[in-house]
Amino acid sequence: MSFIWRRRFSDIFDEIEEMIREMERLAEAMLGGFETRMPRGEFKGPIVYGVRITIGPDGRPIIEEFGNVKRRGRRAIIEEAVEPLVEVIDEKDKVVVIAEIPGVEKDKIDIRIKDGKLIIRAEDRERKYYKEIELPPNIKPETAKAKYKNGVLEVTIEKEKPEEEKEEGGIRVKVE
């Protein structure tokens, strides 16, 4: 019985290794010979490309790209602003957004909530960051608070409290 469990457990690692090989092939196809195709002096700043792999609620892997290298078909386009690595934690009473934006002063960070999206802009002499994050519909934008420390931005936004009418089928009447 334990042999079967070990076999299945090792299959997960085989799948992860295959995903990593596929990502390496994809990155090589996108960026291979990139230096020779780019005109000298046209772009100033770092070239950032990264991938984060998480397991979704259905057990399938979710691959998220970040950085300033974007895919347009088979070509790679470099944008001036880097898209930071972001994690959205949707809790019962609040939403917490954590973004990695190292190298900028906190007074250079602009955070806005507009049309159901959290928009993060940060710009310093050498770095630019930009990211739009889709937020759940039941947030209270006026409660948003942000902290920035050691290159990590944390934005907390409260959610609307569920109405009493939704609780247990109606409005509760107090007994005197």
TrEMBL record:
InterPro entries: A-crystallin/Hsp20_dom (IPR002068), CS_dom (IPR007052), HSP20-like_chaperone (IPR008978), HSP21-like (IPR044587). The keyword RNA-binding does not apply. Pfam families: HSP20. The keyword ATP-binding does not apply. Keywords: Stress response. Residues 76-174 form the SHSP domain. Residues 81-171 form the CS domain. It comes from the Archaea. One of its GO terms (biological process) is response to heat. Belongs to the small heat shock protein (HSP20) family. This is Small heat shock protein.
